[in-house]
Amino acid sequence: MPKLTTIGTGDAFSSGGRFQSCFHIEWEGPTFLVDCGANAFLNLKRSIVNLDRIQTIFITHFHGDHYGGIPFILLDRKFSPEARSKLEIYGPAGVKERIRNLSECLYPGLGDELVAQENLKIENYSSSEYFEVGEIRILPLPVIHAPDSLPHGLRIELGEKVLAFSGDTEWNGALVELADNADLMMLECNSFSSIVPGHCSYSQMKENADRLKVEKLVLNHFGPEMLANKEGVEISMASDGEEFEF
Ligand SMILES: [Zn+2]
Ligand SMILES: [Zn+2]
Q1: Model's pTM, two decimal places?
Q2: What DSSP character marks residue 207?
Q3: Ligand that comes closest to the CA of residue 63
Q4: Residue 241: predicted pLDDT
Q5: For an engineered disulfide with 60, which of 167, 174, 218, 244 has Cβ 3.0 to 4.6 Å away?
Q6: Which helix (H) or strand (E) holds 187?
Q7: What's the CA-to-centroid distance between 135 and ligand 2, angstroms?
Q8: pLDDT at residue 83, as a whole number
Q9: What is the C-alpha separation between 22 and 44, in angstroms, rounded?
């Protein structure tokens, strides 16, 4: 049975001391991550015994709380004494250049080397087009968030099982399509009742949750208002380090 482990369920501000976005998925096919926020790398090392087993990383959009940890994964890989196994990273258009530039800012002189490692592939995905990585089928759909970050939600099909990620977004119809008959959906829910542009609120979620045809809906990416109103929330709220079988 596929298992998702929440590495980071916080927002960009690590509200409530939560790590930034990162999800680890193990199943009979290749182990993979969805997003790796700037500080999620620390919790990834604490939580996951063998990072070498992560063969693929999917990035929803170019905000630091979703891909800021990638240079550290590449640095760790480069300076590891063991030979590293294959790693493939997929993200919105320009992903290789973004990761190269981010790595170069953090470690001047190393940007090119970090993205040119042996056994490493970094590739764009195309919006609204299914692509396949081994036995994994992925549909990236554009969502409504800071446009410069090229925001996407991801529908990830693992054989018969379907996993959906909203990425960061306001409520919009793409969520219904991503969710369609999914076994598990990780949905961002930044605020409780306030409307924050580019993000979902719990009030909107409650109004629209019936439109999401999913087996299990789990909220994440919480801001302070959402955390302060936990008792009033009737949908499952993820914590860092929680496991969901689906
Ligand atoms: Zn975010
Ligand atoms: Zn974002």
Answers
A1: 0.97
A2: H
A3: 2
A4: 97
A5: 167
A6: strand 182-188
A7: 28
A8: 64
A9: 8
Q: Tell me, what's the pLDDT at 52?
A: 87
DSSP three-state, residue 166: coil
Q: How far is the CA of 35 from the centre of ligand 1 (A)?
A: 10
What distance lies between CA 196 and its chain's CA centroid?
Answer: 20
Alpha carbon distances (Å) from 220 to 83, 100, 109:
35, 28, 36
Which residues in the chain come in under a pLDDT of 50? none
Q: How far is the CA of 81 from the centre of ligand 2 (A)?
A: 34
Q: How far is CA 150 from CA 54, 67, 157, in A?
A: 24, 12, 22
Ligand number with the minimum distance to the CA of 61: 2
Q: How many angstroms separate the alpha carbon of residue 146 from the centre of ligand 2?
A: 7
Alpha-carbon dihedral angle through residues 235, 229, 42, 32, given to the nearest 10 degrees: 20
- Span from the CA of 169 to the centroid of ligand 2 (angstroms): 8
pLDDT tens-digit readout, 186-224: 999 999 999 999 999 999 999 998 999 999 999 999 999
Q: Is 193 helix (H, G, I), strand (E, B) or coil?
A: coil
Residue 84's pLDDT is 75
Q: Considering every ligand atom shown, identify the ligand nearest to the alpha carbon of residue 65 and give its number.
A: 1
Q: H or E segment at 179?
A: helix 174-179
CA R_g for the chain: 17
Task: Measure 61 CA to ligand 1 centroid, in angstroms.
Answer: 9
